[in-house]
Amino acid sequence: xxxxLVSQDNLADSPFDIQISGLEANVTYLVRMTLVDxxxxxxxxxxxxxxxxxxxxxxxxxxxxxxxxxxxYCQTGSYQGQVEMGLFFNSKPTENKRMSLQxxxxxxxxxxSFEIQVELLKNxxxxxxxxxxxxxxxxxxxxxxxxxxxxxxxxxxxxxAKNLPAIIVLSGSDGRIEKAQNIAQILASxxxxxxxxxxxxxxxxxxxxxxxxxxxxxxALSYLACLPQVDGERIGIYGRSKGAELALLAVSFFPELKCxxxxxxxxxxxxGMKGYRNSGHSSWTYRxxxxxxxxFSFKDFIMSKLLRRPQIHYQTDSxxxxxxxxxxxxxxxxxxxxxxxxxxxxxxxxxxWKRRGTSAYKLKKLILKSSGHMLTLAYQPNSxxxxxxxxxxxxxxxxxxxxxxxxxxxxx
Length: 412
Hints:
By secondary structure, this protein is of the alpha/beta class. Helix content is 20%, strand content 31%. β18 and β19 (289-290) form a beta hairpin. The radius of gyration is 22 Å and the shape is globular. InterPro entries: AB_hydrolase_fold, Acyl-CoA_thioEstase_long-chain, BAAT_C, Thio_Ohase/aa_AcTrfase, Thio_Ohase/BAAT_N.
């Protein structure tokens, strides 16, 4: 018997197949997958790092005594059907154990790789097992910690990098660095210099997402432009959720940013937050001044609950001036975003974009119909959407992430 992992590479955002040979023909087996030391961007940030993730399925070997987890029909278990990466995507944590989060950047682990343990069982008897490693950050990627006056960051770059395109990576309202880091690691492993930027939620930074200075992005941009690893004419930015709002603002202020991907964006500046409450101030400032913002509306909140769809009436002066952007723009969002009206925001952004007097830059949009606000890395388990078909959520994660990487490779 042999358990073999087949994949084009060892990166965590690539699909893989588990192929098992040397079995009895037409006999049913159980395949169990356990993820060890696994960081999941879609999970609660304080999920204990040591908690294994697990899934299993029942498969029948073919006439040649072989099982392909991707191609052999899964009869029952964590999922049912014949779906590429179905077993991996349906992995879940084996317990809901939580941990205290470190507040000092130096104490936050990289979580750069994980192991996949595959076990083969027949009638509850263990027959064979194998372990494989997958990477967010491959061993060829170097990293450095950076401390700016109003932000902290981790820089990732391929060894011997020179004059490569660079991407600033921003996560959303969770703050901190873990989620931005996870995305930055993968992008670096795909050939970019990347900088994951934490703009609140760590020691030495603002506690809340309230009146965050755009200086945090300006300083990161200036630093990147001076690095020998970076082509200063090819710097882009990626943002998710509130990070997308910040990224759109940054590109409208700083023309040095030449390529932008925003995932689940807002078309306007929204009110800041203190914990789970509105702050009474703008989320963002620049050079000591609060940027105009749309205030939280209790009426919009009630209508959102009644209609079961986010409602926001934006104040005119809070719209982000995307018509000023001097770079390529890719808009990604779900048609039925449960957090805020992403689809409507994308339409408004596109409308303002068309006011531009130039066609020198590309605008592309991708509207997804089978998922929600939590669009992250391809194939990673996502159990947030209990009422949505998991196959659609999986497919949307793959489509959105692959389109992100392709856009940066083409336009940056």
